[in-house]
Amino acid sequence: MDDKSEPLQIIKKAICTALVINMRKEERAMEGQPVLWFQQIKKKFGENVVLDGVDFKVMPGEIVSLVGENGAGKSTLMNILFGMSVIRQTGGYEGTIYMDGNPLNITNPNDAIHQGIGMVHQEFMLIPGFTVEQNIKLNREPLKKNIFSRVFGHSFETIDWDAENRDAKKALKRIGIDVNPGERIEQLPVGLKQFVEISREIDKENLKVLIFDEPTAVLTETEAEKLLKCIKSFSESGIAVIFISHRLDEVMRISDKVVVLRDGILVENAAVTSLTKEKIAELMVGRKLTERTEEYPDRNIKEEDIILEFRNVSVDMPGEDLRGFSLKVRRGEIIGIGGLAGHGKMAVSNAVSGMYPSTGEVLYNGKPLDVSKTGEALRHEIAFVSEDRKGVGLLLDQSILTNIIFNNLSLKGEFLKSYGFFTQIDNKAAKKTAEQMIEDLAIRCTSAEQLAGSLSGGNQQKVCMARALIAEPKLLFVSEPTRGIDIGAKRLILDYLLKINYEKGITVVMLSSELNELREVCDRIAIVAGGRLRGILGPKESNVKYALMMSGDESVRGGEDSYEKD
Amino acid sequence: MKKTKRYIQKLGVPRLIMLAFLMILLIAVGILHIPFTLTLSQCIVRVGINIVLALAMLPSIRSGIGMNFGLPLGIICGLLAGMISLEYNFTGLMGILMAMLISIIFSIIVGWLYGLLLNKVKGSEMMVGTYMGFSIVSLMCIAWMILPFHNTGIRWPMGNGLRMTITLEQWYDRALNELWMFKIGEVEIPTGLILTCAVFCGVMWLFCRSRLGIRMLAAGSNPEFSKFSGIDANRQRIIGSILSTVLGGIGIIIYAQGFGFYQLYTAPLMMAFPAVAAVLIGGATASKISVGNVVLGTLIFQSILSVAAPVASAIFPEGNLSEVFRTIISNGIILYALSKIGREE
Ligand SMILES: Nc1ncnc2c1ncn2[C@@H]1O[C@H](COP(=O)(O)OP(=O)(O)OP(=O)(O)O)[C@@H](O)[C@H]1O
Ligand SMILES: [Mg+2]
Question: Is A71 in the pocket of ligand 1 (CB under 6 A)?
């Protein structure tokens, strides 16, 4: 367009607008107006283009799945819509988002909420010191009039605690979880935090659009099922849903439409009926996915060679209580611990790491291990990957490099050059290892110096894994190892676990909500339900048996291993 | 063009504002025909004698305590040590060295206690630090009166107690500054002072890259993470507090010898603020700092102050208006810097 005279342009614009409005009306009449239209969205972080001309529409009541590899730009796009401050601080974005046909001008999350947008974040946005109900009703507390408020107005109304409690309970019940609304957030395990965050969003009124950024990453299939039903019911009531997940089964089942991002470019925008799981995966990575790469021959695992034994261990971990847990971990095996969120499986690794107080005995190589404080286990060459990557898993303000090599440096004194009485970090060696891991796990970053906090969720998870993997421990605890990791990278990580288990003889205890993943790599899987060990199953046992055991059904007993009652 | 843009972005807005301000002052120096070389010499000295005090913020921020507003604690340790060195008439470099050694002993004890206190008040370290500094300074006002010093050079000629200001002429006035000093044209280069600063900055730089330094950094930036990694964050905070106090003590001795006198009683009250302002201007935040931030910040901040002084007195030749002007500038910058505290860029 190269118009010289301005008035002409204005007239032209006016005509165009009139036409568009007319068309919109027609559109509305014909197929309804999109509730959201992302128009040519572009976003750069410094020189790094992470969204490049993304353009799609969302209809009312439609469930649109947004899929793509780790770092494809999914969370970034949603952060733009929700007005998160990181976007503005890093230089804003280009393009326009239309809501009900009007350009949206959202500068902070509050605006977004007012516009009827709700978001369940990938990393939780809850206030740790507040209770569950306070978090759910934050900023929208139900108010009661009192003498002062009648005189001085709105701001002096008092909070109606009963109503708050009632609303919170209702929201929690709607997604079917059982948690005390008076519990403080910091006391809750990761899985339950996720549910609280979801309850907070669905409790909002006048919702038009609801965003879920990997809501199921820490949930088991049954829990995820519950959530999906819930999401379906929203869409039926006319709320549009944008759903981000790496679990393509869910995506296939729930969505109306699938939008695939690859390196920030929209590569597919189609009805789910015209796609298959394999096709989506292919579109995501841009090439055909290879199946399981290597089969490892049988290892020589002896039933009586025990590396770690739990004897009647009880762990005091809020929301994940574990009682009278006894288990023998055999040297060289990969053992899985499965179960529903909040039933105690997470307590198993937290007991050994010393993060939560426990009673009972933990024997390491037959000798008692002091689990009353953190660090003891680490000194005995036991490594951990925490399920809470943002809280205890990462140094968000430090570089990827520091995060990866930290434990080796701190505990073993590796990556250090020694000069008599003082030491200096050996940047060259550190960089080499960090870069090797970045390559091995396909961590998407600009360099090893990038801050861990500015990585995408899945890539942060890979950094956590990298730290544990290079520690080359004797025993490795991994909690939710593939949380938020895309299908391609999941393969990489699971293969890496199998590889170090086989080649280096590292015993692995894997705690996961994802049964499929456990069954794929584990030799045995212990199921924890209701705070107790219910039994141990082989990876080939039937789904029914697993489901029953997870639900705490007493009639199903574990196979080979002894299951001692206290 | 793109390169310069990125460079400017990296430098950050606050530093650009400060540098612009410095430029304006320098232009004023030119216009007002103020002897430039003299100003430059003073500028170098000012930066030199202040840098170790600013450096004291480094271990405290890295260990997670935040800005050490309790810096007067360290300063008091340094002053006490200084008094002892004067009492026994240590002179020259020997005097400075003795003062530093004695102050280190005091600082370790005080810093350790202060660290214990700060571990009890997590989350409000800056406020508690400020109050702690103020109360100790007040308490020491009494102590300066009654401590058993006998040297007549440091006591009031009559009555009890130590003098308000003690000129160091007979002991070690400018001993470090004048060590190996030489001139480039008219400008005096205080080699000894510069070397001392370089040594302290270098040691802290090495410290940051050592195992202890990296563990401390982890404890400071995420206590939960460090707990998970078997590091006692409280212990790291105590180490940070001790190091900070030690640097505060040494810093005031270097400051005093370059200035020419020790100032007792209420003088240390406000001394934390210029140090905090300097590192903030250098790009540090309440949770992040490097030796580079300290050096850059002190350079900019102290240069402005030392250039502002002659400019002010040239503009307002009579009365003490120039002093008022200088104070306004200094406090204005401190205020501006403090408004940036804790705000990540
Ligand atoms: N604050 C930031 N500063 C710099 N780069 C960033 C920042 N936030 C995100 N990025 C980069 O933007 C890219 C896209 O990140 P985004 O979080 O949108 O990915 P994602 O698709 O949500 O991935 P995941 O599935 O792992 O959650 C990544 O390469 C990431 O490194
Ligand atoms: Mg994401």
Answer: yes
Residues A134 and A239 grouped into a single domain = no
pLDDT tens track for B31-54: 888 888 888 898 999 999 999 999
| Enclosing domain of residue A79 | 32-116+206-289
- Which residues in chain A touch residue B227, judged by CB atoms under 8 angstroms apart? 355, 374, 392
Minimum-distance CB partner of A386 among B215, B228, B287:
B228
ipTM: 0.86
Predicted local confidence at residue A3, as pLDDT: 43
Ligand 1 atom 12: the closest Cα is on which residue?
A: A50
Q: Residues A269, A210: one domain?
A: yes
Report the distance separating Cα A405 and Cα A471, nearest Å: 8
Does residue A94 sit in the same domain as residue A211? yes
Nearest chain A residue to B345 by CA: give it: A89
| Encoded tokens for A280 | 């989506």
A393/chain B closest Cα distance in angstroms: 6
Tell me how many residue pairs between chain A and chain B have CB atoms under 8 A apart: 70
The pLDDT value given to residue B96: 94
Residues A94 and A238 in one domain: yes
8 Å CB contact between A463 and A395? no
Q: Is residue A432 part of a domain?
A: no
In the prediction, which pLDDT does A563 show? 40
Instruction: Say what the pTM is.
Output: 0.82
Determine the 3-state secondary structure of B71 from DSSP: helix
Largest CA distance in chain B: 68
> pLDDT value at position B312?
83
Residues A135 and A170 in one domain: yes
For residues B79 and A122, what is the distance between their CA atoms, to the nearest angstrom? 53
* B231: nearest CB among A355, A410, A413: A410
Distance between Cα A458 and ligand 2 center (Å): 7
Q: Which atom of ligand 1 is nearest to the CA of A461?
A: 26
A256 and A358 inside one domain: no
DSSP 8-state code for residue A237: T
Point out the residues of chain A with pLDDT beneath 70.
Answer: 1-31, 139, 145-156, 176, 191, 287-294, 553-566
Complete edge-to-edge strand list for the sheet that includes strand A358-364: A322-330, A306-315, A358-364, A367-368
Asked if residue A216 and residue A96 are part of one domain, the reply reads yes
Tokens 């490049």 belong to residue = A52
* A4 and A40 share one domain: no
Mean per-residue pLDDT over chain B, rounded: 89
DSSP secondary structure string, B224-281? HHHHHTT--HHHHHHHHHHHHHHHHHHHHHHHHHHHTEEE-TTGGGGTHHHHHHHHHH
Q: What spacing in Å lies between the alpha carbon of A396 and ligand 1's midpoint?
A: 14
A346 part of a folded domain: yes
Q: Is B309 exposed, middle or buried (0-12, 13-18, 19+ CB in 10 A)?
A: buried
Give the relative orientation of helices B13-31 and B291-315 as an angle to the nearest 10 degrees.
30
- Closest residue, chain B, to A373 (C-alpha): B230
- Residue tagged 């972080």 (tokens): A45
DSSP string over B142-201: HHHHHS----TTTB-SSSSSB-SEEE-TTTTTTHHHHTT-EEETTEEE-HHHHHHHHHHH
Count of domains in chain A? 4
Distance (Å, whole) CA A352 – CA A375: 10
Does A403 reside within a domain? no
The CATH number of the domain holding residue A72 is 3.40.50.300
Positions of chain B with pLDDT lower than 50, given as ranges:
344-345
Local structure of A204: helix, strand or coil: coil
Ligand positioned closest to the Cα atom of A66: 1
Of A393, A410, A425, the CB nearest to B209: A425
Q: Is residue A227 within 8 Å of residue A241, measured between CB atoms?
A: no
Position A130 scores a pLDDT of 82
